[in-house]
Write a structure and sequence with these properties.
Residues 32-98 form the Carboxymuconolactone decarboxylase-like domain. The protein is an all-alpha fold. It starts with 14 loop residues before the first helix and ends in a 6-residue tail after the last helix. The longest helix is centred in the C-terminal third of the chain and has 24 residues, at 133-156. It contains nine helices and no strands. It is 68% helix and 0% strand. The protein has two domains: 14-46, no CATH class; 52-156, Up-down Bundle (AhpD-like), CATH 1.20.1290.10.
Length: 162
C-alpha cells in the first residue's frame, strides 16, 4: 500500500532521525513539534526500567493484537536482541501457549488492556506483586503507547523497512 504520508527525505532529517533511520521516525518528523514530544515519550519507554524481555513481550503482543506489521517486524528484531528465541517470538501470537508465570503476566497485561481497556483485579494484584509502582505505570503506558502507535502507523500506511 502506498504511504498516506511520505517519509521526510534524508536531506531534511535532524540528528536524531539520522541516528534512527526508520520510516516511523522519518514519517512522524513531518510534524516537528509533535515528533519532538513523541520522541521523548518513546525514548523513555524504550529505555525505561522494565527488563528488556518484558518490554518486548508486551510490545509484540500489542503489535499482534493491533495487526501492526511495522511494529511486529521492528520489535521481533529487538526481542531477539533482548534474548527471546525465534520460537518464543512466534508463540506471542498464540493465546494458548505456555509461558513462565512472569512472562504470562506481561502478556496478560497486554491482553487485558487490548480487550477491556483495563486490567482485571487479578492481573493488577499480580502486577503489584512483581513490579514497583513506577514499573506498573511504565508497563501500562508502554502497552497503551504501542497500541496508539500501531494505529498511527497503520492509518498513515507507514511501510516496514526492507
Amino acid at each position: 500500500m502506498k504511504p498516506r504520508v511520505r517519509p521526510l527525505p534524508p536531506e531534511q532529517w535532524d540528528d536524531y532521525t539520522r541516528a534512527h533511520p526508520y520510516n516511523v521516525f522519518a514519517t512522524l518528523a513531518r510534524h516537528p513539534g509533535l515528533y519532538r514530544g513523541w520522541r521523548g515519550l518513546h525514548g523513555v519507554l524504550q529505555d525505561g526500567t522494565l527488563p528488556a524481555r518484558d518490554r518486548e513481550l508486551a510490545v509484540l503482543r500489542t503489535a499482534h493484537h493491533c495487526g501492526s506489521a511495522y511494529e511486529w517486524g521492528r520489535h521481533a528484531r529487538l526481542a531477539q536482541e533482548a534474548g527471546l528465541t525465534p520460537q518464543e517470538i512466534e508463540l506471542v501470537r498464540r493465546p494458548d501457549a505456555l509461558w513462565s508465570v512472569e512472562d504470562q503476566l506481561v502478556l496478560q497485561v497486554a491482553d487485558d488492556l487490548y480487550y477491556a481497556g483495563d486490567l482485571t483485579d487479578a492481573t493488577w494484584a499480580a502486577l503489584c506483586d512483581r513490579y514497583d509502582e513506577a514499573g506498573r505505570i511504565e508497563l501500562i503506558m508502554l502497552v497503551a503507547h504501542h497500541g496508539m502507535l500501531a494505529l498511527v502507523l497503520r492509518t498513515l500506511r507507514v511501510r516496514p523497512e526492507d
